[in-house]
């Protein structure tokens, strides 16, 4: 059952926060444990709903799961239970999160067969899976889709490497095709591959397991298939979406916050994008320090035109942080156009911000113009429902900056991606209660 947050906003926060391990990396890495019958130990696993559900699915699939410590597990997929993935339970469990779709590649590669219900995840517009299945078919799999039950099945006696040009640089699609190709016969080349740090981490882990992947970090991956993979250890990177969110939180609440151990080199354009909003942030060692700032002014483009912040496949700006940028802009000085190119329904949450007093024009489902209030008029607390994981966190940040009491329902949407978010915000001085 989903709970509610009650927030009394307008308080300045202060202190240090350490980002959790990356959610979207964890989902890929956990699926990869199916590729070997040896032990894989994974550390810094975020303790969040989506990840815990995937660990449960692995357990139900017969993978031996040992919890060594908090956020530290060992997995051994030496025996699997195919009855489970054909059962009604799997149809229900698999459909509860997006990341479960990445079980397909490893299942197909190692067992010659894979099936999956339509995965869950955020309802943020159409989220097609064509890239995944086209990739599997190119590697030699037979694909069928049972429309009545929304159930996908793949079969392949053997997979054979080849040149695959992806229709789009899909993050989970690239992960799936990589995991199928590492055990295929011969050489696979994937062009227009997504190359997020999550995928770089996956490829590095697979290489430690004995795979032969080159081109890591680029959009052309070359994979020489091997006959089997062995065990390894892996540690998750800090979650860059959390890091961006805490930068936004500091600016919105005029707080001095230090974000610890951020792995700066993997943050791409995230720091510079927040700097374009006028937010000061300083790299100190591997921490980010955001000093308390009374105001922040949005930059213009060199020709004097209004700044646009838009999402793009990596190394472009991640779509998962656009809702945070939008919220932060509501209290900046100046104007910015937010252009969400990838998803069709991720900007509708601006209605709630408008109710709170923000000056936003939703131009169409993909674009919103924000005219900042320059902290001259605080947002007003209100009652709202979290529509998706990132908008949920953005609304939470808005509520923490707002005057008065806010209530956020459906916080399950926030909990699926952020570990103990209320506890960690309270440690910074926030007034937030879970009821
Ligand atoms: C579990 C997981 O890892 N989820 C992430 C993953 O989802 P996921 O892997 O599902 O997202 P995809 O990368 O497949 O695509 C996201 C959307 O962008 C569109 N698209 C994609 C590539 C492209 O070049 N052009 C384009 O328009 C797709 O049609 C789709 O609507 O990547 C998304 C894009 O970074 C993130 O928002 C999600 O948090
Ligand atoms: C959209 C997201 O998650 P998912 O792909 O799991 O729905 C996200 O992490 O922002």
From TrEMBL:
Pathway(s) annotated for this protein in UniProt: Cell wall biogenesis; peptidoglycan biosynthesis
Domain of life where this protein originates: Bacteria
CDD domains in the record: UdpNAET (cd01555)
Protein's cellular compartments: Cytoplasm
Enzyme Commission number(s): 2.5.1.7
Signal peptide: none
Binding site for phosphoenolpyruvate: 23-24
Binding positions (UDP-N-acetyl-alpha-D-glucosamine): 98, 320, 342
Enzyme active site: 122
Catalysed reaction equations from the record: phosphoenolpyruvate + UDP-N-acetyl-alpha-D-glucosamine = UDP-N-acetyl-3-O-(1-carboxyvinyl)-alpha-D-glucosamine + phosphate
Annotated keywords: Cell cycle, Cell division, Cell shape, Cell wall biogenesis/degradation, Cytoplasm, Peptidoglycan synthesis, Transferase
GO biological process: cell division; cell wall organization; peptidoglycan biosynthetic process; regulation of cell shape; UDP-N-acetylgalactosamine biosynthetic process
InterPro entries in alphabetical order: Enolpyruvate_Tfrase_dom, Enolpyruvate_Tfrase_sf, MurA_subfamily, RNA3'P_cycl/enolpyr_Trfase_a/b, UDP_GlcNAc_COvinyl_MurA
Gene Ontology terms: cellular component: cytoplasm
GO molecular function: UDP-N-acetylglucosamine 1-carboxyvinyltransferase activity
Role this protein plays: Cell wall formation. Adds enolpyruvyl to UDP-N-acetylglucosamine.
PANTHER family, A to Z: UDP-N-ACETYLGLUCOSAMINE 1-CARBOXYVINYLTRANSFERASE
The family this protein is said to belong to: Belongs to the EPSP synthase family. MurA subfamily.
Protein name per UniProt: UDP-N-acetylglucosamine 1-carboxyvinyltransferase
Natural source organism: Bergeyella cardium
């Amino acid at each position: 059952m989903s709970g509610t947050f009650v927030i009394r906003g307008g308080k300045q926060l202060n202190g240090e926060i350490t980002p959790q391990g990356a959610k979207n990396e964890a989902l890929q890495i956990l699926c990869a444990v199916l590729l070997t019958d040896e032990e894989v130990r994974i550390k810094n696993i975020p303790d969040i709903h989506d990840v815990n559900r995937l660990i449960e699915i692995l357990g139900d699939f017969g993978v031996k799961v040992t919890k060594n410590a908090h956020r530290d597990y060992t997995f051994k997929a030496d025996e699997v239970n195919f009855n489970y993935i054909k059962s009604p339970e799997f149809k229900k469990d698999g459909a509860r999160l997006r990341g479960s779709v990445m079980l397909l590649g490893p299942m197909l590669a190692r067992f010659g067969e894979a099936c999956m219900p339509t995965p869950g995840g955020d309802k943020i517009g159409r989220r097609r899976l064509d890239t995944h299945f086209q990739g599997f078919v190119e590697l030699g799999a037979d694909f069928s889709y049972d429309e009545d039950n929304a159930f996908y099945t793949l079969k392949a006696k053997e997979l054979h490497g080849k040149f695959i040009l992806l229709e789009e640089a899909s993050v989970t699609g690239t992960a799936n095709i990589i995991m199928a190709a590492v055990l295929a016969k011969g050489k696979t080349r994937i062009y227009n591959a997504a190359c997020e740090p999550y995928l770089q981490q996956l490829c590095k882990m697979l290489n430690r397991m004995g795979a032969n992947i080159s081109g890591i970090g680029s959009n052309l991956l070359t994979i020489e298939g091997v006959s089997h993979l062995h065990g390894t250890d892996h540690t998750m990177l800090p979650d860059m979406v959390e890091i961006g969110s805490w930068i936004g939180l500091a600016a919105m609440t005029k707080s001095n916050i230090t974000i610890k151990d951020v792995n700066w080199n993997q943050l791409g354009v995230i720091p510079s994008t927040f700097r374009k909003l006028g937010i000061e942030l300083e790299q100190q060692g591997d921490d980010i320090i955001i000093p308390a700032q009374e105001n922040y002014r949005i930059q213009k483009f060199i020709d004097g035109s209004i700044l646009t912040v838009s999402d793009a496949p990596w190394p472009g700006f991640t779509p998962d942080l656009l809702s945070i940028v939008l919220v932060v802009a509501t209290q900046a000085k100046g104007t910015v156009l937010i252009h969400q190119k990838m998803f069709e329904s991720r900007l509708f949450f601006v209605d709630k911000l408008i109710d709170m007093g923000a000056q936003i024009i939703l131009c169409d489902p993909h674009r919103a113009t924000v005219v900042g209030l320059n902290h001259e008029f605080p947002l007003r607390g209100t009652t709202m429902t979290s529509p998706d994981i990132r908008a949920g966190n953005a609304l939470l940040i808005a509520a923490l900056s707002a005057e008065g009491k806010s209530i956020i329902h459906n916080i399950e949407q926030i909990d699926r991606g952020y570990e103990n978010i209320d506890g960690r915000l309270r440690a910074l001085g926030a007034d937030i209660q879970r009821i």
